[in-house]
Task: structure prediction
Amino acid sequence: MVRCSNIVLGFMNFLTMVVGIGMLIGLLSIHSHEHWQKECMKLLMHPLLIIAIIILVFSLVGLIGACCESNFCLWIYMFLLTIYLLGLLVAAGFMFYVAGANLQTKELVQKTWVQNNMVGKNWHSLKNCLVRGKVCQDMNSTATNLVEFMMEKRTPIEDNCCRPPQDCGFEFMNATVWKVPKSGLVKNDGDCKIWSNQPDAQCFDCDRCKEAFVGDLRKDAKYIGIGLIFEIVFVLFILSIGCCVKKNNDRNSSYP
Result:
C-alpha cells in the first residue's frame, strides 16, 4: 500500500502519454492529406501540436518520477503542473468574467481584446472557414418572400453574415440572393456597400458578421470556463498524488 500512489501516478501519466502520442500521429496524418490546406485546419494545427507536445513532456517526466523514484523529475513535474494550474486559474477567471459581465462591459471586452486580437487579426482565415463550411448555403430556407424569410429561425452567424442589413433596402430574391431595387438603396455605406451575392463574399466582411462571431465566442465562454474548472480539480488531484509519491520516494531512499 505504501507504493499505491506511485502506481496511480505512473498509470495516469502512461494514459496521458498514450493520448499525446495519439494526438501527434493524428495531426501528422492530417498534415499529409490535401485537406490540410484548408484554413480551418491551419488555425487548429499549431495549438493542437503544442498541446500534444506539452502532454507528452508532462507525462514522460511524471512517469519517470513515479516509476523510477526520481525526486528530481518529480520536482520538475510538480513545478510545471503548478505553472499550468496558475494558467488554468487565470483562463477560467477570464472566461467567467466575460460570460458573467454586464452588457456594457461585454461590449468593451468585445471591442478591445477579443475582437482585436482573436477576430481582427485572424478574420481572413475565420472567414474562409465559414465560406468553406457553406454556412449560408446550408440554411435550407424555403422562403419565397421577405416576410417568410424574416420569420424563419437562423443562427446569429447566418442572420448577420448571409444577408444584407435590413435597412439597406435590398430586394429579396432568395435566401442568398438580393438585388438592388430600381430606385436604388436606402443606404449605400458601411455594411450595405460590402454586401455581395457571390457565395465567397456576401456579408462575411461586414462589421455585423464579425460582431456576431465574437458574440458566439462570448456565449461559449461559460462552458469553456466550466470545463477549465473540471481540469483544475483534476490537476489538483494529480498534485496531491505527486506529494504522496515524493514522500514515498523519500521514505524508500532513507532505507539501505
Notes: Confidence is low (pLDDT under 50) at residues 33-37. The first strand starts at residue 171 and ends at 174. The longest helix spans residues 207-253.
